[in-house]
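Give me structure tokens for this 276-residue protein.
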Amino acid sequence: MKVAAWALVAQTLWAAQDPGLPPELHPWGRFRPGAWKLARVVTETFDEQGQLLSVTTSYTTTTLQKAEVDGTLVLRVEAVLEVSGKRFEASPTQSRQGLHGETPGEKVTVSPLAEGEVEIEGRKIPCKIVQVQIDSPKGRSLIKTWYSRSVPPYVLRRQMRTWDPDGKTLGSETEMKVVALNVRCPELPLGSQAAEVLVTTTHPKGKTVTKAITSPDIPGGIVCHTAEEFDAAGRLVRRSTLTLLDYGLTPARKDTGLFHRLRGRGHRAYRAAAPW
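Here you go.
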């Protein structure tokens, strides 16, 4: 996918202020405003004996409303919860986030770029390394990202640590890494590029392990994922499965709400089981 002219302009303006992650490598920042995706999430909850307690299904449409020159992305989220065959639509919400995941009011400090490499399937890939510190009243986050401009999905590894406001108590640690490139994904059109990603988050109450398929051709990047949450004793307490149902690179019609998209999808993704 070629980088749009507006993204190059935004990159030029933003790069003069911040040496961090280029906008065109961000899973939303590389798209024009109006790009959207529709995903279904099925969540299973288990008891201490491993028995299934409940199953809920939700549908979420996320739309890129605006990309500001400082890198801030404005996303609109519409959600529908399905319970016992009935659908309940929530009020749309809007979020603002920077290219490093920061929200308004948080202080971002970006360290100078460094050189490094990652190894994927025995292949060593040269990378730029960006380290970002995000400070807010809720605590501090330290994020280290390895990215390549030439190897999709571009962000090939990321480490993140969070601390409580006291700055001494470690809240969580997250490791994201690409484990396979050029993955065949039946859910994507022929010729689309995809990669397999593994994300592990540990915290005092347990850990979450997520296996995902990502593609730079899809707004937001995620094609499908399975996330399993474990408690401190290692018991599975929750499993969430996300599937891409539909997406668009241009705005949907003004009279097309989430319910309409659920009933009739114009650019439906090729749905299939995840390859794990």
